[in-house]
Design goal:
Its main location: membrane. The chain crosses the membrane at residues 15-34, 41-60, 142-164, 176-201, 221-241. Pfam families: TRAM_LAG1_CLN8. With 262 residues, the chain is mostly helical. It has one domain (8-260). It contains twelve helices and no strands. The chain is globular. The protein starts with 10 loop residues before the first helix and ends in an 11-residue tail after the last helix.
Length: 262
Amino acid sequence: MALDLSPFSDAYTTFWASSLFASFAVLTVLFSAVGPFKGRAALAAHHVVMVAPFAFLSYQGLVHWNSSSNEVADDPGSRLFFKMPGAACFAPTMLGLQIFDLTTTVLVPGMGKPDAIAHHTVALLLAYWLTSTRFLDYWKPFYFGILEISSVPLCFVDLFRAFPKLAKRVDAVNEAVRIAFAATFLPVRCLIMPYVSYFWWKDFLALYAAADPKLMAHFGLFISFGAMNVFLCVLQQYWGYKIINAAMKMAKGDKVGREKEV
């Protein structure tokens, strides 16, 4: 079966991918002349440009997640297949974001950690599939929106971690974004995400038990989403464990080794 290339020409996908690459190129040139970023300008540029798409997705998630229940009938089939107008932006925006993020994660020195590459690869595949099918619109505001709330402060955490001299100059800001990141990541990704995922699996299994024709026609795609969902949930717990350890060190005033945190 031929690969469907239409998701890559979606307006949101092309806008975000092109905007991120263009902004990254401009900031890399500018940062190469700025003291704290010299020699690692591309790394700094990556962290800065990622703030915009994460903020956009977070806002859209907050706007549309609460309205999802009002727009979609309260049954598994509707939650898995109903096309919700307000959800059209999520998957293609994430696809454009992940095209940029995976590319830079692989190519920019200091970013190519195996767990990060695995995470971005899975997220790109999910975004591609959900852009091409428009399935799971009910769930997109959460998975592609609410989940990214913690990614906004994470951009600054990563920036300061990569540039410890800059972090020391703005120590109060550095500490504030670290607290904001932990305060959003742990409840949203380590607690709420598995809780929401339980209800997704409940819907999926209900339709599977009923041998729903539409589900069975796309069974491979849905079970792949489920497998990726489990992988990402487990990965969040792994990262959550590391964040808790870092928070305990932070509470003791221990700032040693922050540049080596994962």
